[in-house]
Fold:
Amino acid sequence: EPEVTQTPSHQVTQMGQEVILRCVPISNHLYFYWYRQILGQKVEFLVSFYNNEISEKSEIFDDQFSVERPDGSNFTLKIRSTKLEDSAMYFCASSDGTSGIYNEQFFGPGTRLTVL
Amino acid sequence: AQKITQTQPGMFVQEKEAVTLDCTYDTSDPSYGLFWYKQPSSGEMIFLIYQGSYDQQNATEGRYSLNFQKARKSANLVISASQLGDSAMYFCAMREGGNAGNMLTFGGGTRLMVKP
Structure:
């Protein structure tokens, strides 16, 4: 069964450094998402991406964040200058967009980002 | 106001018993979908079941069923015949509007612990 993959599984970085989190969505999917989950808290939406542009973003997704689909298979989240509060699990998800309101989002296994 | 509320931070259930996890939601959009996800200790998000706002019948998926009470804006997850492997965090989520790419809004989660 096709699945969303994410690399790395765990990333440790120093405050102020740039990080790029990578995701490979399911191949025929059209919608891509990033969510984050701070330890012990709920999952929060960051951004959605469709047709090579951002379709929706939350207030968390400020100028420090950017997304890109550089080569038709990867979907990346870049954090330009990491802060301690960026430490979280980051989930990538994708959906095929063919089922209207029922449009299951398939989640990747997550990347745990630790900012020191 | 919270869009998704899960009032039970933690619950215990005896193995083989049924358990209900509560979820209430708030939306003024007539078109919405409700999702339940399971998050085991390994961290991945596993889709369980979906209920659409226009669905006439409660959704069922194996041992999972959804007690959908639209007038009360509740979408409780019922797990029958609990198994030890059901021990996990459970998140209720909602998508509003008819756009297939719309984001999911998650509740705070309920940690279910199944006792042998």
The radius of gyration of chain B is 14 Å.
